[in-house]
Each structure stands twice: as structure tokens, then as C-alpha cells.
């Protein structure tokens, strides 16, 4: 609907004012991945939409925390230069993260 489109554009403008283009892309990619995951869960299991959204968000935070812990360990061990730079801005799904190990 036009109203949703307008609100979406306002959100993008607000994000762009407060974040770099790379950060905006990462945020949008994370939101899109979470949206897909919520839809999959709702189709597979059903349930309360707010509960599913909260569950997916919690999983995202757990994955983000785990990735940050791993990076911190690498930095502490002096391995940062060997690894290179972080290429992906979005929070990867657990399937993607596990397959990259």
C-alpha cells in the first residue's frame, strides 16, 4: 500500500542519516533474513506471530554474540592479520555459519 511504502522510505531515510551505506545494507539484509525465517516458521509450525518474531530475533542476537566472541578470541590470539577482513555485513544463519567452518 502507499502508506506502507511511505513508511518504509522514511525508515530508510532515517537509517541512512545515522549509519553508513554498508551498515544500512547489513541491517536490511539481517531484517530480510529474519523475515524469511519468521515466514518459514509460521508456515511450518504456526503459532503467535509476536512470539515467533521474538524467537527469531533472540536467535539472531545469539548468533551475533557468538560471532563477536570468536572474533574477539582471534584478536586476542593475534590471528586477526591472518584472517583478513570481515566481508559479510549481515548476520549469517546458523546453517551458513556452520558450513563456513
Describe the structure.
- With 101 residues, the chain is mainly α.
- The N and C termini lie far apart (42 Å).
- It contains 5 helices and no strands.
- The longest helix has 28 residues, at 49-76.
> What is the number of helices?
5
Which spans have pLDDT < 50 for at least 5 consecutive residues?
Answer: none
Largest sheet: none
Amino-to-carboxy terminus distance: 42 Å
Oligomer: single chain
Strand content: under 5%
Silhouette: flat
Chart the SSEs and their pairings.
Blueprint: H1 2-18, H2 21-45, H3 49-76, H4 80-83, H5 94-99
Helix pairs in contact: 2-3
Short description:
The chain has 101 residues and is an all-alpha fold. The protein has helices spanning 2-18, 21-45, 49-76, 80-83, 94-99.
Which structural traits does this protein have?
101 residues; mainly alpha; 79% helix
Amino acid at each position: 500500500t502507499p502508506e506502507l511504502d511511505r513508511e518504509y522510505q522514511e525508515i530508510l531515510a532515517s537509517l541512512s542519516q545515522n549509519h553508513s551505506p554498508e551498515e544500512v545494507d547489513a541491517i536490511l539484509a539481517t531484517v530480510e533474513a529474519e523475515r524469511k525465517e519468521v515466514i518459514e516458521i509460521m508456515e511450518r509450525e504456526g503459532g503467535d506471530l509476536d512470539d515467533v518474531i521474538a524467537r527469531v530475533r533472540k536467535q539472531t542476537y545469539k548468533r551475533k554474540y557468538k560471532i563477536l566472541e570468536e572474533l574477539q578470541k582471534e584478536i586476542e590470539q593475534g590471528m586477526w592479520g591472518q584472517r583478513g577482513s570481515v566481508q559479510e555485513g549481515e548476520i549469517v544463519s546458523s546453517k551458513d555459519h556452520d558450513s563456513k567452518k
